[in-house]
Amino acid sequence: MKKIFHFLKPFAITLILVGFLEITGLWGNASAGAQMLVLKTGILNASVETKKSHDNFNYNFSIKDLRGNTASFDHYKGKVVFINLWATWCGPCKAEMPGIQSLSEKLKDKPVEFVILSVDKDGALPKVTTYIEKNQFTFPVFMPHGYLPVEMQVPSIPTTFVISKDGKILMKEVGTRNYDTKKMVNFLIEQTTK
Protein backbone atom coordinates (compact mmCIF):
# COMPACT_ATOMS: atom_id res chain seq x y z
CA MET A 1 0.00 0.00 0.00
CA LYS A 2 2.88 2.37 0.80
CA LYS A 3 4.31 1.77 -2.68
CA ILE A 4 1.02 2.76 -4.31
CA PHE A 5 0.76 5.90 -2.15
CA HIS A 6 4.39 6.78 -2.88
CA PHE A 7 3.72 6.30 -6.60
CA LEU A 8 0.49 8.38 -6.61
CA LYS A 9 1.77 11.19 -4.35
CA PRO A 10 3.38 13.31 -7.14
CA PHE A 11 0.22 13.01 -9.25
CA ALA A 12 -1.98 14.06 -6.34
CA ILE A 13 0.24 17.06 -5.58
CA THR A 14 0.20 18.10 -9.23
CA LEU A 15 -3.58 17.75 -9.39
CA ILE A 16 -4.03 19.85 -6.24
CA LEU A 17 -1.64 22.53 -7.54
CA VAL A 18 -3.35 22.73 -10.95
CA GLY A 19 -6.77 22.83 -9.26
CA PHE A 20 -5.62 25.66 -7.00
CA LEU A 21 -4.24 27.65 -9.94
CA GLU A 22 -7.45 27.11 -11.91
CA ILE A 23 -9.75 28.11 -9.05
CA THR A 24 -7.75 31.25 -8.25
CA GLY A 25 -7.55 32.25 -11.91
CA LEU A 26 -3.77 32.03 -11.91
CA TRP A 27 -3.61 29.10 -14.36
CA GLY A 28 -3.63 31.44 -17.40
CA ASN A 29 -0.74 33.45 -15.94
CA ALA A 30 1.27 30.32 -15.12
CA SER A 31 0.64 28.99 -18.61
CA ALA A 32 1.63 32.33 -20.16
CA GLY A 33 4.86 32.40 -18.17
CA ALA A 34 5.83 28.91 -19.31
CA GLN A 35 4.99 29.78 -22.93
CA MET A 36 7.10 32.96 -22.73
CA LEU A 37 10.11 30.92 -21.69
CA VAL A 38 9.63 28.61 -24.68
CA LEU A 39 9.21 31.58 -27.04
CA LYS A 40 12.59 32.97 -25.94
CA THR A 41 14.31 29.85 -27.25
CA GLY A 42 13.35 30.68 -30.84
CA ILE A 43 11.73 27.28 -31.34
CA LEU A 44 8.34 28.88 -31.94
CA ASN A 45 9.38 31.69 -34.28
CA ALA A 46 6.64 32.44 -36.79
CA SER A 47 7.05 31.19 -40.31
CA VAL A 48 7.24 33.84 -43.01
CA GLU A 49 6.40 31.48 -45.83
CA THR A 50 3.27 32.62 -47.60
CA LYS A 51 0.37 30.32 -48.22
CA LYS A 52 0.24 28.78 -51.66
CA SER A 53 -3.54 29.10 -52.04
CA HIS A 54 -3.72 32.86 -51.38
CA ASP A 55 -7.38 32.64 -50.37
CA ASN A 56 -9.35 35.88 -50.49
CA PHE A 57 -10.06 37.54 -47.16
CA ASN A 58 -13.66 38.50 -46.37
CA TYR A 59 -13.73 42.10 -45.08
CA ASN A 60 -17.50 42.00 -44.58
CA PHE A 61 -17.70 42.25 -40.79
CA SER A 62 -17.52 44.88 -38.06
CA ILE A 63 -15.24 45.44 -35.09
CA LYS A 64 -15.39 47.71 -32.06
CA ASP A 65 -12.56 49.40 -30.23
CA LEU A 66 -12.11 49.36 -26.45
CA ARG A 67 -14.31 52.45 -26.11
CA GLY A 68 -17.17 50.64 -27.86
CA ASN A 69 -16.90 52.53 -31.17
CA THR A 70 -17.78 50.29 -34.10
CA ALA A 71 -16.24 50.30 -37.57
CA SER A 72 -16.46 48.21 -40.70
CA PHE A 73 -13.43 46.04 -41.33
CA ASP A 74 -13.44 47.07 -44.98
CA HIS A 75 -11.55 50.15 -43.73
CA TYR A 76 -8.49 47.89 -44.01
CA LYS A 77 -8.95 47.09 -47.71
CA GLY A 78 -5.83 47.96 -49.68
CA LYS A 79 -3.58 47.68 -46.62
CA VAL A 80 -1.23 45.05 -45.23
CA VAL A 81 -2.95 43.79 -42.06
CA PHE A 82 -1.54 41.74 -39.19
CA ILE A 83 -4.51 40.19 -37.35
CA ASN A 84 -4.11 38.33 -34.07
CA LEU A 85 -7.06 36.49 -32.46
CA TRP A 86 -6.65 36.14 -28.70
CA ALA A 87 -8.52 36.17 -25.37
CA THR A 88 -7.77 37.26 -21.81
CA TRP A 89 -8.27 33.72 -20.51
CA CYS A 90 -5.75 32.25 -22.99
CA GLY A 91 -2.26 31.78 -21.50
CA PRO A 92 -0.57 31.06 -24.86
CA CYS A 93 -2.17 34.24 -26.27
CA LYS A 94 -0.79 36.31 -23.41
CA ALA A 95 2.65 34.78 -23.91
CA GLU A 96 3.00 36.04 -27.48
CA MET A 97 1.61 39.54 -26.89
CA PRO A 98 4.89 41.18 -25.74
CA GLY A 99 6.48 40.02 -29.01
CA ILE A 100 3.56 41.45 -31.01
CA GLN A 101 3.94 44.72 -29.09
CA SER A 102 7.62 44.87 -29.99
CA LEU A 103 6.88 44.03 -33.64
CA SER A 104 4.25 46.77 -33.84
CA GLU A 105 6.71 49.29 -32.38
CA LYS A 106 9.34 48.34 -34.96
CA LEU A 107 6.79 48.88 -37.74
CA LYS A 108 5.08 51.99 -36.37
CA ASP A 109 6.36 54.12 -39.27
CA LYS A 110 5.50 51.52 -41.91
CA PRO A 111 2.14 51.03 -43.64
CA VAL A 112 1.27 47.84 -41.73
CA GLU A 113 -1.99 47.79 -39.80
CA PHE A 114 -2.22 45.80 -36.57
CA VAL A 115 -5.60 44.42 -35.49
CA ILE A 116 -5.39 42.61 -32.17
CA LEU A 117 -8.84 41.06 -31.97
CA SER A 118 -10.07 39.78 -28.60
CA VAL A 119 -12.59 36.97 -28.92
CA ASP A 120 -13.63 37.32 -25.27
CA LYS A 121 -17.38 37.46 -24.70
CA ASP A 122 -18.95 40.84 -25.31
CA GLY A 123 -19.46 41.49 -21.60
CA ALA A 124 -15.71 41.09 -21.00
CA LEU A 125 -14.83 44.46 -22.54
CA PRO A 126 -13.76 45.92 -19.14
CA LYS A 127 -11.56 42.87 -18.51
CA VAL A 128 -9.92 43.22 -21.95
CA THR A 129 -9.36 46.95 -21.39
CA THR A 130 -7.85 46.38 -17.95
CA TYR A 131 -5.49 43.69 -19.27
CA ILE A 132 -4.27 45.89 -22.15
CA GLU A 133 -3.77 48.94 -19.91
CA LYS A 134 -2.07 46.95 -17.14
CA ASN A 135 0.46 45.57 -19.62
CA GLN A 136 0.89 48.93 -21.36
CA PHE A 137 0.23 47.48 -24.81
CA THR A 138 -0.13 50.23 -27.39
CA PHE A 139 -1.21 48.23 -30.43
CA PRO A 140 -4.84 48.68 -31.51
CA VAL A 141 -7.16 46.22 -29.76
CA PHE A 142 -10.66 45.42 -30.94
CA MET A 143 -13.48 42.97 -30.36
CA PRO A 144 -15.82 41.55 -33.00
CA HIS A 145 -19.10 43.38 -33.42
CA GLY A 146 -21.40 40.59 -34.53
CA TYR A 147 -20.15 37.59 -36.47
CA LEU A 148 -16.69 36.86 -37.85
CA PRO A 149 -16.18 35.58 -41.39
CA VAL A 150 -15.64 31.84 -41.89
CA GLU A 151 -11.85 32.10 -42.30
CA MET A 152 -11.60 33.72 -38.86
CA GLN A 153 -13.77 31.18 -37.07
CA VAL A 154 -10.74 29.20 -35.96
CA PRO A 155 -10.71 26.08 -33.78
CA SER A 156 -8.08 27.44 -31.40
CA ILE A 157 -6.36 30.62 -30.35
CA PRO A 158 -4.03 32.32 -30.65
CA THR A 159 -4.32 32.44 -34.42
CA THR A 160 -2.62 35.09 -36.53
CA PHE A 161 -3.18 36.15 -40.12
CA VAL A 162 -1.30 38.43 -42.49
CA ILE A 163 -3.49 39.90 -45.22
CA SER A 164 -1.97 41.44 -48.35
CA LYS A 165 -2.94 44.79 -49.85
CA ASP A 166 -4.92 42.95 -52.52
CA GLY A 167 -6.95 41.04 -49.92
CA LYS A 168 -5.18 37.67 -49.98
CA ILE A 169 -4.45 35.62 -46.87
CA LEU A 170 -0.66 35.38 -47.05
CA MET A 171 -0.05 33.72 -43.71
CA LYS A 172 -2.01 31.90 -41.04
CA GLU A 173 -0.27 30.75 -37.86
CA VAL A 174 -2.19 28.69 -35.30
CA GLY A 175 -0.73 28.52 -31.81
CA THR A 176 1.79 30.56 -29.88
CA ARG A 177 4.51 32.10 -32.01
CA ASN A 178 7.25 34.66 -31.68
CA TYR A 179 6.55 37.38 -34.25
CA ASP A 180 9.30 39.69 -33.04
CA THR A 181 11.92 38.50 -35.53
CA LYS A 182 13.94 40.22 -38.24
CA LYS A 183 12.42 37.83 -40.79
CA MET A 184 8.89 38.87 -39.83
CA VAL A 185 9.76 42.58 -39.91
CA ASN A 186 11.30 42.18 -43.38
CA PHE A 187 8.37 40.04 -44.58
CA LEU A 188 5.79 42.62 -43.54
CA ILE A 189 7.78 45.53 -45.01
CA GLU A 190 8.18 43.58 -48.27
CA GLN A 191 4.39 43.14 -48.46
CA THR A 192 3.90 46.91 -48.29
CA THR A 193 5.98 47.42 -51.46
CA LYS A 194 4.08 44.91 -53.60
Structure report:
It is a single chain. The protein is an alpha/beta fold. Helix content is 38%, strand content 19%. It has one domain: Glutaredoxin (3-Layer(aba) Sandwich). The chain contains 5 helices and 7 strands. The longest helix is centred in the first third of the chain and has 23 residues, at 2-24. The N and C termini lie far apart (70 Å). The mean pLDDT is 83.
Strand order of the largest sheet: 2-1-5-4-3-6-7
How many beta-strand segments? 7
Radius of gyration based on Cα positions: 19 Å
Listing every helix as H and every strand as E from the N terminus to the C terminus, the arrangement reads HHEEEHEHEEEH
Head-to-tail CA distance between termini: 70 Å
Please describe the structure with a list of short key phrases separated by commas or semicolons:
single chain; 194 residues; alpha/beta; Glutaredoxin; seven-stranded mixed beta sheet; 19% strand; globular
Entry summary:
Helix content is 38%, strand content 19%. The chain is an alpha/beta fold.
List the helices and strands and how they pair.
Layout: H1 2-24, H2 27-40, E1 62-65, E2 70-72, E3 80-86, H3 91-106, E4 112-118, H4 125-134, E5 141-145, E6 159-163, E7 169-174, H5 182-192
Parallel strand pairs: 3-4, 4-5
Antiparallel strand pairs: 1-2, 1-5, 3-6, 6-7
